[in-house]
Design brief:
- GO terms for molecular function: oxidoreductase activity, acting on the CH-NH2 group of donors, NAD or NADP as acceptor.
- Pfam families: OCD_Mu_crystall.
- This is 2,3-diaminopropionate biosynthesis protein SbnB.
- The protein is an alpha/beta fold.
- The protein folds into two domains: 2-130 and 322-343, ornithine cyclodeaminase, domain 1 (2-Layer Sandwich); 136-319, NAD(P)-binding Rossmann-like Domain (Rossmann fold), CATH 3.40.50.720.
- The chain contains eleven helices and 18 strands.
- It has helices at residues 26-33, 37-53, 128-146, 163-174, 189-201, 214-219, 257-261, 270-273, 279-287, 297-301, 321-337, and strands at residues 2-5, 15-18, 22-24, 56-57, 62-66, 69-81, 87-95, 107-114, 121-126, 155-159, 181-185, 207-210, 223-226, 246-249, 264-267, 293-296, 313-316, 342-343.
- Strands 3, 4, 5, 6, 7, 8, 9 and 18 form an eight-stranded mixed beta sheet that branches. The chain has an eight-stranded parallel beta sheet with strand order 12-11-10-13-14-17-15-16.
- β10, α4 (163-174) and β11 form a beta-alpha-beta unit.
- α1 runs parallel beside α3 (128-146), α3 (128-146) packs across α4 and α3 (128-146) crosses α11 (321-337).
- The longest helix has 19 residues, at 128-146.
- The radius of gyration is 22 Å and the shape is globular.
- The structure holds nicotinamide-adenine-dinucleotide.
Length: 355
């Protein structure tokens, strides 16, 4: 800890203590999170509730794009979360789809945590795992809340089976979900085969089927998880959803407006989700209204809305920075309590502002 005078008049000001600056590796993040799916889903639910009460600041994400690399982007998600977490911070996450062909993951990220009293950053965490974890925890949370007033799904279909689909499956399984049938569909047969292999190794019960067509997967599933990297809608036919499935539309741009218009729609945050040409944003552009939205997941959790069971139900989460802060703070506390913080001594230097 470094004690410094807190104001210009250093003679009279109370000294304040800066937390040391720590770097937390991906290996430490994984260790802090693995096997704690139920706890993390609770944390994410708490973060949604705190955000729902307004005790948070979650400005729009900032998209850095490159004229010569249209497929690539780096997104900044600044946020501040109150409640018991009480922290500010920034997730800085890249998506470079071409990485996959080179054998490295598409997404990479860091999360900075800032002390709410001084604004000083006190930790930098590897954050691709935190990001995938909070996304999957949010999906599992939504699956639980959104299936309360309808028959609990017994047939799940994974549409696009990369890293996020694997995390979502882990969180569904880790929070008590079992299925009679698990469907898999991916543009790339080798990815579908790899996901099938992962499912078999993870010891799931239930029949695993790889579906050649999108239509067959959707018609065969009561819970459909979209985790593709599609940039624009590629599923257009509302009749594929005639059996009223619950849809976790994590990749946000797969479904054509006519499908959302024939469904009940829940988002995580309305202002966030209706931008960047997500499917809900396309509906707003087409209809000029937001009437097609029933509400947010927090509205469901807090019983302000109840989705009907006799329509398809689609959850489209934009992904909120407050969730990264909730999970990142949990990781920080776990690593700190275990005595594993790797402190960078003298990271902040020359702190005596007035001599
Ligand atoms: N909403 C959120 O909070 C949130 C958070 C993190 C990631 N995501 C999104 O999740 C998605 C998946 O991320 P990932 O890291 O797993 O990506 P990934 O590249 O690891 O996997 C994507 C998979 O989808 C497949 N695919 C792509 N287009 C397809 C299509 N049209 N039909 C079928 N399969 C298709 C690919 O072959 C690949 O197997 C991305 O769109 C990402 O932006 C959303």
């Amino acid at each position: 800890m470094t004690a410094i005078p807190s104001a210009a008049n250093s003679a009279s000001a109370e000294p304040i203590t800066l937390p040391p600056f720590a770097v937390i590796s991906g290996a430490q993040v994984r260790q802090a999170l693995s096997g704690r799916e139920s706890r993390i889903v609770e944390l994410v639910e708490d973060a949604y509730r705190v955000h729902g009460t307004g005790d948070s600041v979650n400005p729009p994400s900032y998209f850095l794009r490159f004229p010569d690399r249209p497929a690539d982007r780096i997104i900044a998600l600044p946020a501040c979360l109150g409640g018991q977490t009480n922290v500010a911070g920034l997730k800085w996450i890249s998506s470079y789809p071409g990485n996959v062909a080179a054998g490295i993951p598409r997404a990479s990220a860091v999360l900075i945590l800032n002390d709410p009293e001084t604004g000083y950053p006190f930790a930098c965490l590897e954050s691709s795992i935190i990001s995938a974890t909070r996304t999957a925890a949010s999906a599992a949370l939504a699956a639980g809340w959104l299936s309360r007033d309808r028959q609990r799904p017994r047939r799940v279909g994974f549409f696009g089976v990369g890293l996020i689909a694997r995390y979502i499956h882990t969180f569904l399984a880790g929070t008590g979900w079992t299925f009679d049938e698990i469907g898999v569909h991916d543009l790339r047969p080798d990815n579908a085969a790899g996901f099938r292999g992962y499912l078999e190794q993870s010891g799931v019960t239930g029949r695993i089927s790889v579906h050649e067509t999108a239509e067959h997967l959707i018609r065969s599933s009561d819970l459909v998880v979209f985790a593709t990297i599609a940039g624009q809608p590629h599923v257009h036919d509302p009749s594929w959803f005639a059996h009223n499935p619950l849809v976790l539309h994590i990749s946000l741009r797969d479904l054509a407006p006519e499908i959302l218009l024939a469904s009940t729609n829940i988002v995580d945050d309305i202002d966030h989700c209706l931008k960047a040409d997500t499917s809900p944003h396309l509906v707003e552009q087409r209809t000029g209204t937001r009437d097609f939205l029933l509400g947010t997941l927090d509205d469901v959790i807090s019983a302000r809305v109840t989705p009907p069971a006799d329509r398809p139900l689609i959850f489209s989460p934009f992904g909120l920075g407050v969730l990264d802060l909730a999970v990142g703070t949990f990781v920080y506390d776990q690593v700190s309590n275990a005595g594993g913080l790797q402190i960078i001594e003298d990271f902040f230097h020359d702190l005596r502002r007035y001599g």
